[in-house]
């Protein structure tokens, strides 16, 4: 569906932080109104929940053999430095991430790479299951996909069951906005899909957007300062490097169980 993409969501969301590298309350109250319902509030509480994981496969140092597992905090503070009330969350997180070894490589470089050349990084986005029995929630920003029920029902409703007379003929054209090839390139990265034939494409997030997608888009489609804030200063989002191929594969097995 050819259209213009007017609002630069990346730019707006990157103003979450002020010059003192703290959350900007004025901007937050504005952003609250930018998204429907409680979506923005839910995304912000997810970012504060210790339930979000960014797993990065370290291809450069990848090994195949199994080794002792270790777990390190993305902020480098170690578990001893965490508040006591985080103990339960840590226990849950450890249960979910059990046996994944991670190394505390230079996260500053990793954050920079995730912004400057994300196509060179193999990474997976996971939210801890809401219940012990539930499956983890998997998010794929490149395809604007989330495995949660909310995403599934919105997709069904807006793209599959759409019976309006003037609907687009294919699900793709209903779901994706392609920028006019003659238009100047757009700097907005929010809900942006990989280039196809040099055409900039955006998923129509106004039709399908859940808190998980919004929260990961805030982390990875705004500015590297925002990612640094949540993974290092606030330290409520885990940025974990996986160096062993068997553990990387185990991560995927856990996702589909
Ligand atoms: Zn979701």
UniProtKB/TrEMBL annotation:
Composition-biased stretches (Low complexity): 92-105
Spans annotated as Disordered: 65-105
Composition skew (Basic and acidic residues), residue ranges: 76-85
Superkingdom: Eukaryota
Protein name: LANO_0F03488g1_1
Species name: Lachancea nothofagi CBS 11611
């Amino acid at each position: 569906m050819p259209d213009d993409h007017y609002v630069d969501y990346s730019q707006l969301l990157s103003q979450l932080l002020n010059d003192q590298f703290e959350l900007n309350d004025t901007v937050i109250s504005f952003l609250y109104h930018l998204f429907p319902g409680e979506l923005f509030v839910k995304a912000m509480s997810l970012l504060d929940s210790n339930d979000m994981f960014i797993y990065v496969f370290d291809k450069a140092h990848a090994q195949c053999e199994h080794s002792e597992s270790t777990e390190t905090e993305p902020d480098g503070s170690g578990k001893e430095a965490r508040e006591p009330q985080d103990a339960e969350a840590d226990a849950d997180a450890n249960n979910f991430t059990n046996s994944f070894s991670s190394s505390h490589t230079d996260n500053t470089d990793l954050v920079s790479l995730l912004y400057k050349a994300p196509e060179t990084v193999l990474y997976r986005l996971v939210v801890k299951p809401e219940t012990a029995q539930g499956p983890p929630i998997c998010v794929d920003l490149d395809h604007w996909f989330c495995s949660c029920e909310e995403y599934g029902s919105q997709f069904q409703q807006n793209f599959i069951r759409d019976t309006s007379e003037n609907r687009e003929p294919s699900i793709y054209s209903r779901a994706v906005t392609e920028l006019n090839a003659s238009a100047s390139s757009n700097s907005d990265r929010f809900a942006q899909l990989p280039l196809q034939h040099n055409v900039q494409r955006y998923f129509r997030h106004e039709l399908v957007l859940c808190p998980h997608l919004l929260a990961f888009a805030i982390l990875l489609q705004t500015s590297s300062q925002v990612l640094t804030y949540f993974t290092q200063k606030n330290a409520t989002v885990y940025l974990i490097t996986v160096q062993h191929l068997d553990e990387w594969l185990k991560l995927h097995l856990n996702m589909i169980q």
